[in-house]
Amino acid sequence: MLARANRVTRPDDFRLAVRRGRRVSTPNAMLHVVDRGAENPTRFGFIVAKSVGGAVTRNLVRRRLRAVCRDILSTVPVGADVVIRALPGSEGVDWATLHTEIAIGIDRGVKRG
After folding, report:
1. Residues 90, 61: contact at Cβ < 8 Å?
2. For the segment 11-30, what is each residue's pLDDT rounded down to a tens digit?
3. Does 4-112 carry CATH code 3.40.50.2000?
4. How far apart are CA 54 and CA 51, in angstroms?
């Protein structure tokens, strides 16, 4: 589980990341990365729409994404907000593929800025 300090929770923060963040596309997710400054903790947010599946499927995808982000938290620069939008089909992807895609996507989003 991600600590509360490492989660994007406010709708305004989600909106800022989606509208102004650097966008990185992977086959199973769309990542939005915003730099908020080094004095802030790294935070992750998740958007899993009904197009991904029913409630059980969406919660499974969200849990898997949270676990991936917990694993890579130490590699992401401090002060970054990362919002991950799961795309349809992401529920059937194996763990290693999902982990690799998200890690590479975040690296690309952070380095681009």
Report:
1. yes
2. 999 999 999 999 999 999 99
3. no
4. 8
Domain boundaries, the chain: 4-112
Q: Which residue has the tokens 């802030």?
A: 40
Tell me how far the alpha carbon of residue 108 is from its chain's centroid.
Answer: 13
Residue of 14, 91, 99 whose CA lies nearest to 52: 91
Helix/strand/coil for 23:
strand
Instruction: List Cα–Cα distances, 101 to 13, 49, 95, 108, in angstroms.
Output: 23, 19, 10, 10
**What's the one-letter identity of residue 75?**
T
In this prediction, the residues of the chain whose per-residue pLDDT falls under 50 are none
Strand 80-86 to 43-48 pairing: parallel
